[in-house]
Design brief:
By secondary structure, the protein is mainly alpha-helical. The protein has 46 helices and 6 strands. Helix content is 64%, strand content 4%. The chain is globular. The two termini are 48 Å apart.
Length: 927
C-alpha cells in the first residue's frame, strides 16, 4: 500500500530506541540540508521496525513523505512495487533523458518496446525522484522490503546506493531470515533488537497498566524485549495471569509462536470476517475496487470488516489495512489451501483480462490444482509480457509456475530451461541452477541437452567459475553435431572466451583443443557480426596455429571494427577479447578507440556489466600512457558497478599493474596472492597477468633476477593478453642477469612478431630489444629509433621507460650530458605519473651524472577523490552537469556537489579553469 503524507502512529508512545532515533534524525537532517541518505532497519517480526518508520514520518513534517508496504502475494509481479511507488511522480517522466524514459515506460508496461535494461530503470527512478525532491525534500519509507519483487528491489537499491546530494531519504525495513538477495547490503544497516529490560518494563506498564513484578520479569525475559510480543501478550493474557494469581502459559507465545497468537485471533472471528481478511491479504493492496468486486463474488459485505477492526487486526482509520504487516502474512500463510484457492478464483474472475492479464494469470494459477494446460499457457503468455518489459525474474517465476501445471514432459523441461535463462538475465545464477535441476530427467534429445549445458556454462561464467565451462560447451557442440553450424560457432566462441581466461586451468579439455575446434568450424562471417567473428577466429588461430597465422585475421578484424563494423551490440566478453587482440598486435590506438566506443555505447544503454568490462580495458590503456589517476577512476567505477550487478570480479585483483607501477608492494603482493587462490575456479590468466605486473615492479626496484623469473613464466605461457608485452621486460632483465639464452629467445620472438604487427608500439619494442642487446653506435641508433616510434603513440609510460634505459646506457658510456637529457625527461615523466619505483631509479641515475633531481610537490589535483577526478575530467571536456550525471548513473545535483568540492580543492572559480588545473586538454574546438 502507498500513502502520501504523514499518518499518525497508533498505539502507545515509543519507548527507548535512542540509537535508532538518532540515526533517523541524522538522515532527516541531511535531507533537510540538501543531502541524501539511506538506512536499512533489520530485525525479527514485531521488533519495532514499522514503529520506527512511523517515528520517521512523525519527525518529517516539512518533507514530502511517501510510504510503501510490500505485500507477499505480489512478489511475483515484476516492477509492480516500483510502479506503485512512482505513480505520484510519473507526470514528470517526460523530463527524463530519452533512454531512461524508454526503459521506464517499458518496465512499467506503459508503452510497448524492447525489454528494459534494469539499470537504466534504476537510473530513471533516481532521476525522477531527484527531480521531485528538488521541489520539496522527499522521504520514502519502505516496509516489509523482503516481499518486494526482485526488479523493484534492484531499482530501489540502485537508487539508494547513488543518493548523495538530492534532498532525498530512504528508510527500508527488512525482516530477519527472509533476506533481500543482498541487494541492500551496501547501505547503512542497523539491526533492531529487543528492548533493554528497563524499557521493556516501561512499555509493558504503558500497555497493560499494573502487572505483577514476577509476571513482568517472566514476560520481559520470555519475549526478549520484543515490543509487539510485549503488547500482544498483555491483550492475550487474562487479568488473573497478569496479576500473578493464575499461571502463565508455557512457553510464552513469542517468535514464531507470535504468529500462532495472531492466527488464534483470526480464527476467533466470524467465518465471513476471516474470508475477508484472507481476501485483503491476497488482493492488490492499492486496488480496493478489485478487492470489493471479489468480495461481492464471495458474498461478503463491508460489515464483515467490523469484527476485525474491533479485535485490533484492521486499522480503525483504514479498515482495509492490517494493523501490522505480520498479521497480513500470518493470515495468508495460515489459511486452509482450499480457502486460498477460493479467494484467488474470485480475484481472477474480477481481474480485467486485458488490463490486468498478468494478475489474472497469477490468481488463476493460485486457484488451480494439478495439471492444467490452460493455466500453464496463460502463465507462459504472462512470462512473455514480463520479458518484453525487462522483468526477467518475473518471467522466470511465471515460467516455473507454468511448468508445474504442464503435463507434457518435453514442454515442461522447455519451460524450466526458459525459466533458467530468465533467471540468468536477472543475475540469479543460483535460481537458474535450481530450475535446471527441476528439469532433470525431462531433458531429452541433443538440442535440449545443448541448451542445458550452455545455460549452466553461462551461470558459471556469471560467477567467474570458468574451469569447467570449455568442456561443457565442447560437449554441447558434440551433441549438436551438424544441425546448426551458426549455433556451433557461437558455442565455440563462448568456449574459446572461457578457455582464454582459464588458460591452463581448464578441466576436461584444453585451450589448444578448443582453439583447434574453433578454427575447424569457421564459417563465412555473418555480415552483422563480421568484426567479432574475425576477432574470435584470429584468437583461435593464435593459439592453434601460431602468431603468423593469426595476425592478418586480427588486423582485418580491428580494421573492420574501426571502419564502421558494429560493436555496440556485442556481448560483454567482447571487450575482453578485443583487448587481448589489441595487446597482441601492440595496437594501442585501436584499443583506445574501440574500448571507448564500447564504453560510450554501454553507458547510453545502461548495460552496466558490459560497461564495467570496457572500463577495465580503458584503464589498461591509460596505464600504458602514464595516466594512473585516470586509470584509478576507471577501476573505482568498475568496483561500484561490480557491487551494483553482484559481479564477483571487483577489487584489487584488477589493479595489479597499477600497484606495480606505483610501488605499492604490500597491496601488489596481496592481490597476487588472491590471483593464486583464483586458480581453483579456473582463472589462470589472472596469475599470468600478476607475473607480468611483478616483472614490471621488480624492474622498477632493480631486482633483475626476480624480474627475469616472472617475465620468463609469462613468455613460456605466451597468452595473447600479455605474452608479447612482456618480451622487452625479459630482455632487459636477462641482459642484467646474464641470461643469454633467455635474451636470445625473447629477441627472436620479438623479431618474428613485431614486423608482422607493424604498429609503432611493436616496432618501438623491437628497437628497444635490439638496443638492449647491441653495442656501440648500433645500440644508440636503436634507442633513438625506439624513442621516435614510441613517441608517436599514446604510450607515455613506455616512452619514459625507454628514455630511462637509454639514459642509463649513455651514462655507463660516460656521455653524461646526453644521459642527463633522457634521464631528466624520464624522471619528470615518472614523477608526474606517480610511478614511484621508476622515478627513484631515474633519480639515482640522474644523481650519478652529477645533476640533482628536484622532487615535485604534490599538486592540489592529486587530492581529488576518484569520483571528483572523473567529474572534473568530464567537465573539462565540456560536458554539462546533466550529461555527466547520465554517464555516471548519478543525479545532476550530485555532480554539482562534486564540482563544488573540486572548485574548493583546486582553488578555482570557473569551469573554464578546470582543464589547466587538472592537467588535461579542454573541449575540442566547436564543442
Amino acid at each position: 500500500m502507498v500513502w502520501n503524507g504523514v499518518q499518525q502512529a497508533s498505539g502507545p508512545p515509543m519507548v527507548g530506541r535512542h540509537t535508532e532515533r538518532e540515526a533517523i534524525g541524522r538522515l532527516l537532517d541531511a535531507v533537510r540540508d540538501g543531502l541524501s541518505g539511506a538506512l536499512v532497519l533489520t530485525g525479527e517480526p514485531g521488533i519495532g521496525k514499522t514503529r520506527l518508520l512511523e517515528h520517521a514520518a512523525d519527525r518529517a513534517a516539512e518533507l514530502r513523505v511517501v510510504r510503501l508496504t510490500a505485500v507477499e502475494s505480489e512478489t511475483g509481479l515484476g516492477f509492480g512495487a516500483l510502479h506503485r511507488l512512482l505513480r505520484p511522480f510519473l507526470n514528470r517522466a517526460d523530463r527524463l533523458p530519452g533512454p531512461q524514459r524508454a526503459a521506464l515506460d517499458a518496465a512499467l508496461g506503459l508503452v510497448p518496446g524492447p525489454p528494459a535494461d534494469r539499470y537504466l530503470v534504476g537510473l530513471a527512478t533516481l532521476t525522477l525522484l531527484s527531480e521531485a525532491a528538488a521541489e520539496q525534500p522527499l522521504l520514502f519509507l519502505l516496509d516489509d522490503a523482503h516481499w518486494l519483487d526482485r526488479e523493484s528491489a534492484e531499482a530501489l537499491a540502485f537508487t539508494a546506493r547513488r543518493l548523495h546530494a538530492d534532498s532525498l531519504g530512504l528508510i527500508i525495513a527488512v525482516r530477519d531470515g527472509l533476506g533481500d538477495n543482498g541487494l541492500f547490503d551496501a547501505l547503512d544497516t542497523h539491526a533492531v533488537t529487543g528492548l533493554p529490560e528497563p524499557e521493556a518494563r516501561e512499555l509493558l506498564s504503558l500497555g497493560a497498566g499494573r502487572v505483577d513484578t514476577t509476571v513482568t520479569d517472566r514476560i520481559v525475559a520470555g519475549t526478549g524485549g520484543n515490543p509487539l510480543a510485549l503488547l500482544e501478550l498483555t491483550d492475550a493474557l487474562a487479568a488473573e495471569q497478569l496479576s500473578g494469581i493464575a499461571p502463565l502459559p508455557e512457553p510464552l507465545p513469542v517468535g514464531r509462536l507470535l504468529e500462532s497468537h495472531f492466527r488464534r485471533l483470526v480464527r476467533a472471528l466470524p467465518p465471513e470476517t476471516g474470508t475477508l481478511l484472507l481476501l485483503l491479504a491476497a488482493a492488490p493492496s492499492d486496488d480496493t475496487g478489485t478487492m470489493w468486486r471479489a468480495a461481492g463474488r464471495l458474498g461478503l459485505s463491508a460489515r464483515a470488516a467490523q469484527p476485525a477492526v474491533a479485535a485490533g487486526i484492521l486499522g480503525r482509520d483504514t479498515p482495509t489495512a492490517f494493523r501490522h504487516p505480520l498479521i497480513r502474512s500470518t493470515v495468508y500463510a495460515g489459511a486452509e489451501p482450499g480457502e486460498r484457492r477460493r479467494v484467488h478464483a474470485a480475484l481472477a474472475a474480477v481481474c480485467d483480462a486485458v488490463r490486468d492479464a498478468d494478475r489474472r494469470a497469477w490468481h488463476r494459477a493460485e486457484a488451480a490444482e494439478g495439471v492444467d494446460d490452460g493455466v500453464a499457457d496463460d502463465l507462459e503468455a504472462a512470462s512473455e509480457r514480463a520479458r518484453s518489459r525487462g522483468g526477467y525474474s518475473q518471467q522466470a517465476l511465471f515460467l516455473s509456475r507454468a511448468a508445474e501445471f504442464t503435463g507434457d514432459p518435453d514442454k515442461r523441461a522447455e519451460r524450466l530451461l526458459d525459466a533458467a535463462q530468465a533467471h540468468l538475465m536477472s543475475g540469479d545464477a543460483s535460481a537458474a541452477g535450481t530450475a535446471m535441476d527441476l528439469a532433470g530427467a525431462d531433458i531429452r534429445g541433443p538440442v535440449m541437452r545443448m541448451r542445458e549445458l550452455r545455460t549452466r556454462a553461462t551461470a558459471q561464467m556469471l560467477q567467474i567459475v570458468v574451469a569447467d565451462i570449455p568442456a561443457m560447451l565442447m560437449d554441447a557442440v558434440t551433441g549438436l553435431g551438424t544441425r546448426d553450424p551458426g549455433l556451433t560457432w557461437e558455442l565455440l566462441c563462448e568456449a574459446l572466451h572461457a578457455a582464454l581466461v582459464a588458460h591452463d586451468c581448464t578441466r576436461g579439455t584444453s585451450l589448444g583443443e578448443v582453439a583447434a575446434a574453433a578454427v575447424a568450424a569457421r564459417h563465412d562471417p555473418d555480415p552483422a557480426a563480421r568484426g567479432r567473428d574475425l576477432l574470435m577466429e584470429g584468437l583461435a588461430r593464435r593459439v592453434a596455429q601460431g602468431y603468423e597465422h593469426s595476425t592478418p585475421v586480427l588486423r582485418a578484424a580491428l580494421d573492420g571494427l574501426r571502419g564502421g563494423d558494429r560493436i555496440e551490440d556485442a556481448h560483454s566478453p567482447f571487450a575482453v577479447m578485443m583487448s587481448m587482440a589489441c595487446d597482441d598486435l601492440w595496437d594501442v590506438r585501436a584499443g583506445r578507440e574501440l574500448t571507448g566506443r564500447l564504453a560510450a555505447a554501454n553507458r547510453e544503454t545502461g548495460a552496466l556489466y558490459a560497461l564495467g568490462i570496457a572500463l577495465l580495458a580503458e584503464a589498461r590503456h591509460l596505464l600504458w600512457d602514464g595516466r594512473f589517476r585516470e586509470a584509478e577512476v576507471r577501476f573505482a567505477e568498475f568496483d561500484v558497478i561490480a557491487a551494483d550487478t553482484g559481479f564477483p570480479g571487483g577489487g584489487d585483483i584488477n589493479r595489479l599493474h597499477l600497484f606495480a607501477l606505483t610501488g605499492q608492494e604490500a597491496e601488489l603482493r596481496a592481490a597476487v596472492r588472491r590471483t593464486a587462490e583464483l586458480r581453483s575456479i579456473g582463472l589462470g590468466l589472472h596469475q599470468l597477468l600478476a607475473r607480468h605486473a611483478l616483472a614490471l615492479f621488480e624492474l622498477g626496484r632493480g631486482r633483475y633476477r626476480q624480474a627475469t623469473e616472472h617475465a620468463r613464466a609469462v613468455v613460456d605461457a605466451d597468452p595473447p593478453a600479455c605474452g608479447n608485452l612482456v618480451l622487452p621486460l625479459l630482455i632487459e632483465a636477462g641482459v642484467r642477469t646474464g641470461d643469454r639464452a633467455g635474451v636470445r629467445a625473447a629477441l627472436a620472438r620479438l623479431e618474428e612478431r613485431a614486423p608482422l604487427a607493424g604498429t609503432p608500439w611493436a616496432l618501438g619494442a623491437l628497437a628497444l630489444g635490439r638496443a638492449l642487446t647491441a653495442d656501440g653506435d648500433y645500440a644508440r641508433k636503436f634507442y633513438e629509433e625506439s624513442v621516435d616510434l614510441l613517441g608517436q603513440e599514446p604510450l607515455a609510460l613506455e616512452l619514459a621507460r625507454t628514455r630511462l634505459l637509454f639514459g642509463e646506457w649513455l651514462r655507463r658510456r660516460k656521455r653524461r650530458s646526453d644521459a642527463r637529457k633522457h634521464l631528466r625527461a624520464a624522471y619528470e615523466s615518472f614523477e608526474a605519473f606517480g610511478a614511484a619505483p621508476y622515478a627513484e631509479r631515474a633519480r639515482t641515475e640522474l644523481l650519478a651524472t652529477g645533476e640533482k633531481a628536484r622532487r615535485r610537490t604534490d599538486e592540489a589535483r592529486f587530492d581529488l577523490t576518484p569520483r571528483e577526478r572523473q567529474v572534473a575530467s568530464m567537465a573539462a571536456a565540456g560536458l554539462t552537469n546533466t550529461e555527466i550525471a547520465t554517464r555516471l548513473f548519478v543525479t545532476a545535483s550530485t555532480v554539482e556537489f562534486h564540482l563544488n568540492k573540486v572548485f574548493r580543492k583546486l582553488g578555482i572559480t570557473s569551469r573554464r579553469q578546470i582543464p589547466r588545473a587538472i592537467g588535461e586538454p579542454g573541449p575540442a574546438p566547436g564543442e
